[in-house]
Backbone:
């Protein structure tokens, strides 16, 4: 059974601070990892992908992957009120056309 | 910027009726997906589609569901006899390859009454 776990929050962070979001996954065969942002009533919007161990930076966002610990994280630097949303961790197992397994998401609130 | 488009944005149907949800994936993408998100719950994979046939499907995707690519651009999800518990947001997504980034449409909110 593929499981992706996230702390549901809410996680409250002051504006300008670093928000840290975490995710663990159960299937060691997982190969591809994604972070999505979802505003209430809207669709998931891709933020970042990461495929190999280490850090990957894109603007204010940094994704970190540790396959040995089965752990993925997302750091948001200089948090803005517009970053307030639910952040979804999604994992893909294997190289076939199976779909993404999503966590329930972490609700992030950036306090002005 | 290319995007996945879905129609309608909201569909209300009576229990037992058939509904068809439509999607236009990104034009150079090869893999198409349907996901479902019941209110307050996580996004769940339903089915993937490649080369005009189903590639993978989840336990949720039972005999009441079917998918089709009726022409070169549209990708549809049919729910044959809707139940109250089918009420959810349905998202279409597409990818260029199997492990590349999935881009989601804006969703169809299905309400079964």
Residues:
């Amino acid at each position: 059974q593929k499981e992706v776990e996230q702390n549901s929050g809410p996680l409250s962070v002051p504006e300008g601070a670093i928000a840290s979001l975490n995710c663990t996954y159960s299937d060691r065969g997982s190969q591809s990892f994604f972070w999505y942002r979802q505003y209430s009533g809207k669709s998931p919007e891709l933020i970042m992908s990461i495929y190999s161990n280490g850090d990957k930076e894109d603007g204010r966002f940094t994704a970190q992957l540790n396959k040995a610990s089965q752990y993925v994280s997302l750091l948001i630097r200089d948090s803005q009120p517009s970053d307030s949303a639910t952040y979804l961790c999604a994992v893909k197992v294997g190289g076939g056309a199976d779909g993404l397994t999503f966590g329930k998401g972490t609700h992030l609130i950036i306090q002005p | 910027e290319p995007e996945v488009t879905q129609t309608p944005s909201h569909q209300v149907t009576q229990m037992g009726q058939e509904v068809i949800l439509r999607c236009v994936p990104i034009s150079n993408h090869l893999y198409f997906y349907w996901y479902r998100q019941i209110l307050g719950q996580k996004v769940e994979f339903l089915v993937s589609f490649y080369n005009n046939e189903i590639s993978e499907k989840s336990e949720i995707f039972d005999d009441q569901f079917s998918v089709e690519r009726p022409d070169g651009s549209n990708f549809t999800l049919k729910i044959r006899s809707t139940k109250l518990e089918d009420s959810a947001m349905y998202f279409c997504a597409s990818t260029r390859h199997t492990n590349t980034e999935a881009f989601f449409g804006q969703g169809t909110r299905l309400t079964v009454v």
Q: What stands out?
A: The longest strand of chain A covers residues 30-38.
